[in-house]
Amino acid sequence: MDIGAINALSYEEFLNVLGNVVEKCPIITAAVWSERPFSNLDALEAAIDNFIDALPESGQEGILRCHPDLAGKELRSGTLTPESRREQGHAGLDRLDAAEASGIGRLNAEYKARFGFPFVVCVRTSDKRSVPRQLEERLRRGRAEERARAIAEVKKICRTRLRSLVRGDQVNKL
Q1: Longest Cα pair distance anywhere in the chain, in angstroms?
Q2: Taking a C-beta distance cutoff of 8 angstroms, is the pair 164, 156 a contact?
Q3: pLDDT digits (tens, 9 = 90+) for 13-44
Q4: Which of 15, 43, 47, 171 would bridge with 38, disulfide CB 3.0–4.6 Å?
């Protein structure tokens, strides 16, 4: 689908196609629909980024809380969104041995206890070996710094999801 086709979608179609580019936050997609037409994919990405940036800290943390734990119970029970299932599978998080799963589970719990939201990283640019290292490194940050980093990761995930749905002629690199 190209940006012209995206611009031509009705509100309902727009939500159906793009509603999960930010995990379980279709309200973001709904909010940017009114900014159509988008000149290109970069403009659509910018509209979503601007919406997220304009949210208060509590709203940004709400977005973070919509994300599942990496290699967590939703993956094991098969209840991840299709996008998250593909992304975690791409990183090999669906093929962890018991020790790897236990280690990531322990780090996820420590992270969530420290920050109040799940660890978010764009696993399309990670793998099962780098995730625990990133968790350990990011556990050393302060809350504000980590919230900003996690929101940057949400935006990166959004960009990868948009790029899988929309062909663009002017696309920025991750």
Answers
A1: 49
A2: no
A3: 999 999 999 999 999 999 999 999 999 999 99
A4: 43
Residue 90 among the catalytic residues: no
Q: What is the DSSP letter of 19?
A: T
Distance of CA 4 to CAs 20, 44, 63, 109, 125, Å?
20, 12, 28, 43, 28
DSSP bridge partners of 167: 2
Q: How far apart are CA 76 and CA 157, in angstroms?
A: 21
Give the active site residue among 64, 67, 135, 153: 67
Which tokens hold the place of 88?
């975690």
Angle, in degrees to the nearest 10, between helices 26-33 and 11-18: 140
Question: What residue ranges define each of the domains in the chain, with the CATH number in brackets?
Answer: 3-62 (no CATH), 68-161 (1.10.3330.10)
Res 174 pLDDT > 90: no
**Residue 129 DSSP one-character state:** T
Compute how many other C-beta atoms are within 10 angstroms of the C-beta atom of residue 37.
11
pLDDT of residue 168: 60
Q: Two tokens at 22?
A: 């930010």
CA angle 74, 80, 83 (to 5 degrees): 150
Residue 122 contacts residue 151 (beta carbons within 8 Å): no
What sign does the CA torsion over 89, 94, 99, 101 have?
positive
